[in-house]
Write a structure and sequence with these properties.
The protein has 286 residues and is mostly helical. The chain contains 13 helices and no strands.
Length: 286
């Protein structure tokens, strides 16, 4: 079942990577219209639809894969964004971008070699309630930042969005052993997933309008991947195959590092929805 989980994780990367291009282009077109207009624009809604499909793929992959592998696959979607941006918008991938793409592939291969196909450890309702309660402060901080008009607030919003999306991954992993509608509806993790998911989408949309796409995407992926992976390993029973701890650690670092390198690629690259070309103008930041 490891192969099935990997295929779903790949599907999540493909769909969310393509969604980033649509959402970033929409953010550029609606940079003066506010978040409310952005999130209902056709392109952004199309991207959100792809994001939802990617989310379903992620949830499916979490039935068999540890959270650290699925989160790294999600971070690797920036490579898909780079390739789609090159095809759709005619941007150019330079040598270092190609090296980062190779790094993504190599890192994911190392992670896959060290991952074990296993369900998450059953999580009691108290822990699920704690996750739901934790969504409150995250959403509150994000709501405060939405009203702040200062330089660099976009990066802070992307960081909060990263925490929120980490929460969706953790909640999804908690729900991986729920096999009935009633079990899903009665689980506090379900409502944590909804709260974190809605907040994450809103905060990331605002971040795209207030800072460069590269910065927003890098902050999002770094925080989301590190936070969710840590909780998966420490709380949810995720682990690696015996003897593959070092390979997995290197794969994690290479994958996340390559994704962030692509996010910060400048000039004619396509990372983070066409890097320096698809960004909010300086006057629109903060």
């Amino acid at each position: 079942m490891l192969l099935v989980g990997l295929l779903f994780a790949l599907g999540a990367a493909l769909t969310t990577g393509s969604a980033s291009v649509l959402q970033a282009v929409s953010a550029r077109r609606h940079e003066q219209g506010g978040v409310s207009r952005l999130v209902v624009s056709p392109l952004y809604l199309a991207g959100t639809g792809l994001d939802f499909l990617g989310f379903l793929c992620m949830v499916a992959s979490l039935h068999w894969l540890p959270l650290f592998l699925v989160q790294c696959a999600a971070a690797a979607s920036v490579g898909v964004t780079a390739l789609v941006g090159r095809r759709v918008l005619g941007t150019v991938l330079r040598h270092r971008d190609l090296l980062a793409l190779v790094g993504l592939g190599a890192g994911l291969a190392m992670l896959a070699s060290g991952a074990k196909a296993e369900h998450a450890t059953a999580v009691d309702r108290v822990t699920q309630w704690l996750l739901l309660i934790a969504s409150g402060p995250v959403l509150a901080v994000g709501a405060v930042l939405l009203g702040v008009r200062r330089p660099h607030v976009g990066a802070a919003l992307a960081t909060v969005a990263g925490l929120a999306f980490a929460g969706t991954g953790i909640a999804s992993r908690m729900l991986s052993d729920a096999h009935s509608v009633s079990a899903v509806l009665s689980a506090p993790a379900t409502y944590a997933l909804i709260a974190f998911g809605v907040g994450g989408m809103l905060f990331f949309a605002a971040a795209l309008q207030r800072t460069q796409v590269t910065i927003a995407t890098a902050a999002l992926f770094a925080v989301q991947t590190l936070a969710a992976s840590a909780v998966g390993l420490l709380v949810l029973g995720d682990s690696t195959r015996a003897g593959f701890e070092a390979v997995t650690a290197v794969g994690f670092a290479v994958t996340l590092g390559s994704a962030i390198a692509l996010c910060f690629s400048e000039g004619d690259d396509a990372a983070g929805a066409v890097a320096a070309r698809t960004v909010a103008p300086r006057g629109a930041e903060g």
